[in-house]
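pasting for the record
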Amino acid sequence: MAVPTGCASPIPQGKMVSAAGAGDGCCMRFLMLNWRDPRNPRSGGAERVTEGYLTALAGRGHEVVWFANRFAGASAEEFLNGVRLVRAGVLGSSVLEARRWVRRQPCFDLVIDQHHGIPWYAPWWCGTRCVAYVHEVLGPIWRTFYRRPWSDIGRIQERWTHWLYREVPFWTACESTRDGLRRHGVRRISILRYGVHTQALRVLNPKPLAQPLRLAVVTRLAPNKRVDHALSALRILHRRGFGASMVVVGTGDGDAFLRQKAVDLGLRESVKFTGLLPEPEKDAILREAHLLLHTSVREGWGLNVIEANALGTPAVVYPVPGLIESTLHDQTGLVAERETAEALADRVVELLADDARYQRLRHQAWDRAKTMHWSQVLPPACDWLEARARGEPLPADDLVAAEAGGDSRDFGCVKPGDRGRTHLL
């Protein structure tokens, strides 16, 4: 399959440097295509990490544009941290609107086609270099949002889309997604880890694992997150005689259902729903919690796991793609044996019987989170994107990373100075 590499229109003399002539220190033009932007009320973790990468590119002096769907009350254009937000079209029309808009612009050096189940088909109309950006292979997630036959149609469409894009370079965050893409026929995939803004605590304060347990859930309240499983796990702990409470941070379409679920389970006094919170308040909850619970169908990574780890709180998670990478079992947290509330509760009980193990997980999660701050993740990620914009060949290694300091061998990393495979977790 031939992927176009020529520019759709010339760049004004003296304004920008084309991909073919771009070099270190040259200003280049990047375009991100994503259905939502950070101002969209329905934005989530995907938009948070996308903003991180694009803000860093803008900070390097590049011109960066984010094209997204319009939404009620939104302006057609605005700037956010140096990134130009452009909005046009809605579901069903935004691809055509993007194509029309791009044809009126100077040539971009790199277009990033971000897939959320449905792509933008940019390699066939953008007229320049293009990479695909995928957070997760949705797979079973289709069934959490749509009934049959629509869920089956979605899964088939996703598989065939990846096959159609098989020669396009892909960028994702974890091995599970990479492997899923490979099963769908994609041939060139690079891993760029997500970063977090959360600064790791300078000193890890004592936090004995004792009753009553303080549990936290931080996520969008959507069907695929399965927060009701976390509520059921809390109920199981109570039935086994353990004292525990839970704070649920987030909002979404499932808010009313989950509040009623808590009442039905007899957890009215044990569960607090906070809605959305400012970052300092969310961080305070994560810092005080003994454990973060994560029960999603699957994740592109699981940013809240690393945020909790940075604040000295390990996670207990379901054994699903993404979460098995963000939580390393018995190193930085625990992974349940099965995707059931009972199995989740079992892992929590395991830790209650072994505070020394809990403290070891806390410290190792905290150490690992230090390597995943944006300041560590962004430099190699931006280098990779700039290399794609210049048209450089993809490296043979599919894991793009900074060289983490410290004794990183415990987490499958290499130490500084090792010129073999470098990993950033």
